[in-house]
Amino acid sequence: MTHSQHQDHNPELETHTSPLPAVDAHSTSVTYGENTVLNDVTFAVPSGAFVGIVGPNGAGKSTLLKTLVGIIEPSAGSVHIYGINPSRSRGLVGYVPQSESVNWVFPVTVWDVVMMGRTPSLGAFRYETRDDKHAVMDALHRVGLLHRKDDMIHSLSGGQRQRVFVARALAQDARVLLLDEAFGGVDVGSQYELVAVLRQLCEEGQTILLTTHDLANMARRLDMVLCLNGHLCAWGPPDEVFTPDVLEELYGPHVVSAGSSYTI
Q1: I need a labelling partner for 39 at 20 to 30 A (CA). Which of 91, 131, 189, 249 fits?
Q2: Is 77 helix (H, G, I), strand (E, B) or coil?
Q3: Phi and psi for 141 in degrees, rounded to 5?
Q4: For 183-240, how does the pLDDT look when each residue is reduced to its tens digit (9 = 90+)?
């Protein structure tokens, strides 16, 4: 199965003649009971962009990703992936959850985890075709872990595990990758390796949104930054949005008075 064939389950994507944003949120709100987690958020991410989502704990960053992938329905407004509602665009979106939500001691190999990305294309008996195997090999090669394909997932470092989950998303032919706290529990050296992989994927046409608290190291590597604190505080290139006013709106006056624009 080729890349284009695997996308046939989203025929709407092929019918658009003008470029669409990879991710589009319009007046999006998410409410849990009486608690509004996201309020009137609007932004559009161009295809191939490397985007950071920043904000304090409880700002709605993870909620936004879960809304984009279709796990959570917005209570108002809309979100679209290449013009398609998330409920019908699952094959287009790859979601990498926070590392603490994953059972890392489960006895599976790197190959097994990445093959899970092919599950929708496998038959009732989960027979792995030659095209499935090729897609997994290609995905592991793109994240630099093909040589670890037979290793148990628990034997990998934190950064390598994150790259395996990126490979799983690539194996499903996802065009938009959503990573929730990708650098949690990852040492600095592995962070640089992961960022290099993600940057290369964007150059190949993937669109990547990741939540992060590491403004100091990520600011100069991102194309765009989405600043959240229950609402959209700012959206644009890092050197334009990381102003003292925005940082104060995100984290409070103590951040600005600390003397470092990018320190949390």
Answers
A1: 91
A2: strand
A3: -65, -40
A4: 777 777 778 888 888 999 999 999 999 998 877 777 888 999 999 999 999 999 999 9
